[in-house]
Amino acid sequence: MSIAAQSLAFAEEALTADDVKAAAAAEGAGFAYGLAAIGPGIGIGYLVGQAVQAMARQPEAASDVQTTMFLGVAFTEALALIGFVVFILLKFA
Amino acid sequence: MTPMKPGAMSHRLEGPAPVMDVARDLARRTVLIAPALIILGAVFWQTPGAASVAYGIAIVIVNFLLAAWLLAWGGRISIAAMGAAAMFGFLLRLGLIFLAVLLVKDAEWVNMLPLGLTLIVAHLGILFWEMRYIGGTLAHPGLKPSAKMSIHHPADPSAKSTHETTGAA
Which residues contact B140 (CB under 8 A, 6 or more apart)? Predict the structure, then answer.
């Protein structure tokens, strides 16, 4: 048997169903976290940009805008947290 | 639309930051419901469940306080710095949460399911609960004034005096 054929046979033996499942779970977890962070990133960027502009235009309303921005960031961040929880459940649970 | 003055982005936000009041109130409410959540965790997942729920609650509280502190800190420098603190703070806090979970992932007292559920439920639940107590006006940009605080604002006709509140003559 050639070396290539021996390597192939070894690789086929080494990769069990559990290994394939673990690899798929790791891939899925990585995609879940990465994709879930994109949306909140865009959302928070837009929200903060508009809030900063509003505060620069009307500094007297800055406190009110700041509170609204804080709550908006916290709500948007919940989306990223959901993705993170899916990640830890797929990867570590 | 109000035009932006030159150098408006470098304007500092003076005075107390209302977001710190909101964050402290969020933390207080989280601590209030913590025993009920920990008991639920213990009922469904025994001791590791209770410990995981408590750990998740601690993460949520630190996350809220850190977010507000970063905003307040950035605001004292400039409005632009506050925007940067909000954006990079988001990344920083996600990293810290990841690190906090990574540190305990192999611990015997941790169950990932209640920990994950606590992160989502506590975070969202407390935020929706807090929405009822947010002033959202120029007069009260942070929390709504409580009945006790209203005593100090006699101009507010809806405010009850101490005598009315306590029922004294």
Answer: none
Chain A residues in contact with B23 (beta carbon < 8 A): 70
Query: Position of tokens 């290539």?
Result: A4
CA distances to A4, A16, B3 from A10, in Å: 10, 11, 71
Pick B123's closest partner by Cβ from A66, A81, A92.
A81
Cα(B76)–Cα(B80) distance, rounded to whole angstroms? 10
Q: Which of A39, A27, A40, A30 is nearest to A73 (CA)?
A: A40
The residues pairing with B143 across neighbouring beta strands, listed in sequence order, are B134
H-type alpha helices, chain B = 18-77, 79-104, 112-130, 147-150, 162-166
What residues of chain B, 35 to 74, have a C-beta less than 8 Å from chain A?
A: 64, 67-68, 71
Q: How far is CA B151 from the centre of its chain?
A: 26
- Predicted structure pTM score: 0.79
Look up residue B125 and give its amino acid. G
Contacts of B130 (CB under 8 A, 6+ apart): A71, B22, B25, B26, B29
Q: pLDDT, tens digit, for every residue of A10-62?
A: 666 677 888 888 888 888 888 888 888 889 989 999 999 999 888 888 888 88
What are the residues facing B134 on neighbouring strands? B143
What is the number of residues in chain A?
Answer: 93
For B91-139, the pLDDT digits (tens) are 899 999 999 999 998 899 999 999 999 999 999 999 999 888 887 677 6
Chain B residues touching A74 at Cβ < 8 A: 64, 67, 123, 127
The angle at the Cα of B22, spanning B90 to B113, to the nearest 5 degrees, equals: 55
Give me the interface pTM, i.e. the ipTM: 0.77
